[in-house]
Amino acid sequence: MLFSLARPALFLLDGETAHRLTLAALRLAPASAPPAADPMLAMRVAGIDFPAPVGLAPGFDKNAEAPHTLFGFGFGFVEIGTVTPLPQAGNPRPRLFRLVEDKAVINRMGFNNDGAGAVVERLVAGRSNAGIIGVNIGANKDSEDRIADYATMTRIMAPLARYLTVNISSPNTPGLRALQDAGALSALLDAVIDARGANPCPVFLKLAPDLEPADIHDITRIAMDKRLDALIVSNTTISRPALRSRHAGEAGGLSGAPLRNLAQQRLRDFRTASGGAIPLIGVGGIASAEDAYARIRAGASLVQLYSALVYEGPGLAAQINRGLRRLLKQDGFATLGEAVGVD
Question: What is the CB-side half-sphere exposure of residue 132 using CA atoms within 13 A?
């Protein structure tokens, strides 16, 4: 109800300003305990016990400003970032666009963040609070050695994060997606794994939806060879399905409802390529319990969302959790794990 009242005022502001105001309000709120583990929905992935399957995708809280407050909205886990070794301003504004008619967002933020040092301070300050916080890591735009940046971020963040996500799939840092090529990906993951050392922090890999079948096969093979803990499918897309908004031609990554079918298909592709041997996390266009359930039946053990919050409000995660219980019971499943990959 509060969101319904506030939304018209927020939508009078540009998307980035509204986002900053929302984060400022969250910083004033007390930390919240994560949701209690639900016997029907709880999942164990990469050795981590997730109390609920719906997570907040990175991009909302890039700098770990209010991650523990966000657990109060029903999220089973929160992923911060993308964080780079050095602070960077990102791309020029405007760089975030609401496509209201399409329930979509286009962004070309460019890994704007406060840098590893500031984020570490906030994570250390919040360590007394419970909850699963993952850290999405990236490379600085002007780095001469991007693989070295990922190794640096791994050494810094592995002692603090419940898991790390290697983000090589943003379309807004020129050349970054080239790290999804087989040779570059193998070298990158070797560097990350070496930098992790004896630290048991799980490593996830976030991928683009704009991949060819050969790419999917190569990435899956390398991920399994390197014993990665999960694949996150998928990031925003550079493709442009039919859109109605006047912002449809803006450059950047498209997320929200128009990404749903593409992201779902890529999840199925990675499930087929891996034979279910590596956990998958579904993201992209998830805005309802039905969307989340379809992703789970297609092979996802967990899901993440962000863009849908712009249109559906902060209660969406809790709403999806309730809906998942209903859908699982309807289909005769006692636990969410029983439904993973049944399609």
Answer: 28
Where on the phi/psi map is residue 299: left (φ > 0), alpha (ψ -120 to 50), or beta? left
- List the catalytic residue out of 32, 170, 274, 307: 170
170 part of the active site: yes
- pLDDT tens digits, 92-146: 999 999 999 999 999 999 999 999 999 999 999 999 999 999 999 999 999 999 9
Assess contact for 301 and 277: CB atoms under 8 A. no
Rounded Cα distance between 147 and 144, Å, is 9
Entry pTM: 0.97
DSSP E strand stretches across 41-193? 43-45, 48-50, 54-56, 77-83, 96-99, 104-107, 133-137, 163-167
Encoded tokens for 142: 């002007």
Give 316-330 pLDDT, tens digit per residue.
Answer: 999 999 999 999 999
CA distances (Å), origin 48, targets 77, 182, 258 = 11, 28, 31
CB 231 within 8 A of CB 278: yes
Q: Which residues pair with 113 in a beta bridge?
A: 88
- Tokens, residue 187: 């070298």
- Is the preceding omega at residue 39 within 30 degrees of 0, hence cis? no
Per the CB < 8 A criterion, the answer to whether 157 and 135 are in contact is yes
| Residue 35: half-sphere exposure toward Cβ, Cα within 13 Å | 23
Beta strand pairing status for 253-256 and 104-107?
antiparallel
